[in-house]
Amino acid sequence: MKIVLASANKGKIEEFKKLLPNIEVVAYSDILGKFDIDETGFTFKENAIIKASVVNEKLKQLGVKDFIVISDDSGISLPILQNEPGVFSARYAGVNASDKDNNKKLISKLDELNLENTPAFYTACITIIYNDLIYTVHGFMYGVAINKELGENGFGYDPLFIPNGFTKTLGELDFEVKQEFSHRSRALNLAKKVLDVIL
Ligand SMILES: O=P(O)(O)OP(=O)(O)OP(=O)(O)OC[C@H]1O[C@@H](n2cnc3c(O)ncnc32)[C@H](O)[C@@H]1O
Ligand SMILES: [Mg+2]
Fold first, then answer.
1. What is the pLDDT, as a whole number, of residue 199?
2. Looking at residue 87, what is its pLDDT?
3. Where are the transmembrane segments (predicted)?
């Protein structure tokens, strides 16, 4: 049984592989080739279900057997910005924005408000599809977003985010620290319980 990850985000794929060391995890593009999935949902859950459903259907069309599809839709939300960027985190600075572009935009928003830091939280919704049945779980991570990038570790908004209880950003902290409490680890811990029951 393998897990097919309905993600094209290298940072996420790397994290899922580290978080599921005893299971074969492959990115959908390894089996289906590269293609974009339109995330037309307005919630993390809607988008996670869209991503997992598209990959599940294409795997079935290809006649692939014995697989579980897992997707992750995630993002950072700042209450002071009415929870922006939220589900638009990946394209905050535009459709083909890089992590750097997105971080630069978020920093400019804090600068406009003359804020060096402000509360922020990450959401991860993980959807599991197995034998066409859909299961979704959520995980959250709370902290503050700052108006500068610190550190090179992780991906995405990590260099701007200081988790509650820490003084360093996720860009400065090791993944081993992040995996203890990240939105993705928490959601995946719930997803593993679902897998324990359905497999
Ligand atoms: O949809 P897939 O193919 O999974 O890849 P994506 O990068 O588009 O993923 P999302 O649509 O879920 O958007 C997630 C955004 O939130 C950011 N993000 C999510 N989890 C993160 C984490 O653990 N650390 C830093 N940034 C994160 C990430 O950089 C993206 O900009
Ligand atoms: Mg995406």
1. 80
2. 97
3. none
Q: Distance, CA 96 to ligand 2 centroid (Å)? A: 11
Which ligand has the nearest atom to the CA of 9?
A: 1
Single-letter amino acid code for the residue at 113? L
d(CA 195, CA 199): 6
Domain residues for 190? 2-198
The crossing angle, in degrees rounded to 10, of helices 183-198 and 10-19 is 50
Two tokens, residue 167 = 């003084």
Please identify, by atom number, the ligand 1 atom nearest to the C-alpha of residue 90: 31
Mean pLDDT for all residues in the chain: 96
The pTM (predicted TM-score) of the whole model is: 0.95
- CATH code at position 99: 3.90.950.10
Structural domain count, the chain: 1
157 has binding-site annotation? yes
Tell me, using a 6 A CB cutoff, whether residue 72 lines ligand 1. Answer: yes
Q: Give Rg (Cα) of the chain.
A: 17
